[in-house]
Design goal:
Elements: E1 3-9, E2 14-21, H1 23-33, H2 41-59, E3 65-72, E4 77-84, E5 89-96, H3 106-110, E6 117-124, E7 134-139, H4 151-163, E8 167-173, E9 178-185, H5 209-219, H6 223-228, H7 231-239, E10 244-246, E11 250-251, E12 257-258, H8 264-274, H9 276-286, E13 289-292, E14 299-302, H10 304-311
Parallel strand pairs: 5-12
Antiparallel strand pairs: 1-2, 1-10, 1-11, 2-9, 3-4, 3-6, 4-5, 6-7, 8-9, 13-14
The structure holds zinc ion.
Amino acid sequence: LSELHKFIFDGMPVRGMLVRLTDGWREVLARREGADTPYPPELRALLGEMAAAATLMQANIKFNGALVLQVMGDGPVKLAVAEVQPDLAFRVTAKLVGELPAGSGMAAMINAHGRGRCAITLDPKDKLPGQQPYQGVVPLHGDHREPLQKISEVLEHYMLQSEQLDTKLVLAANDQLAAGLLIQRLPVQGQANLEGTQARNEDEIGLNEDYNRIVHLASTLTADELLSLDANTILHRLFWEEPVQRFEPLEGAHGPRFACSCSRTRVGNMLIGLGRQEIDEVLAERGDVEVGCEFCGKKYQFDAVDVGELFAPVGSQAPGSSTLN
Ligand SMILES: [Zn+2]
């Protein structure tokens, strides 16, 4: 089962989390296997790391809504998305155009011409009318415009910029497991706040000895270890000399798992958005309209009668006809 472990370091302003996506991650890949365009291994690894990272970030905030982690750019991978709900249900998708050269790193995949970026969106569940989701965007290059090769580095940058939190992320994924370790310095009370209204002295960053020591330990964790050792072994190996206090792991129905939030209603609304004319053209050509969910692969079919109901003015459906809900 997939699992999420939270822990703190007793008496130190440092917290941590370890996530292992197992069954849910394998289901994501299995669903894609049947698709017309399976993901190449390099893209699977990136998506796995993004799923692990987005799960850690969602579990790290108190927010009632989806956390959407996206990278988009100008390489063969136009878009890669990992979305995690407050209950840790996750789903991922990517748009690949053309061939991905074997062994491509993140820069070659997404940031071929330096215009790639990473967006983190917090989309509230119960939006007020006109309310926009919060979105933070960072480039896929470092302070000196050097292209970053790891999504973990991009996200560390994002956390520091947007939330002013020192963060260390170690991520790794293969076809069996997507895993991640997050270490974060806790904000000193009343000092750093999420609004970012209080400017933070750059010199403060890195002053805390405990945090630096723990990050140094976390940095020794290799991708191989993260992918081959269980959570207890990893935490013990890294932090056996530190006062780690662990919480009850989140797993099974309470932990991270694959789930897709697509529905016939949402697909119907998307078709309405495309407009009657475009839909009628597809109907004339194919006899029905079929839309596949890009996240889970589920197919939704609409025939001429369904389309007629979709575009019927509200309240005018014939009695007894099926309604969308
Ligand atoms: Zn779906």
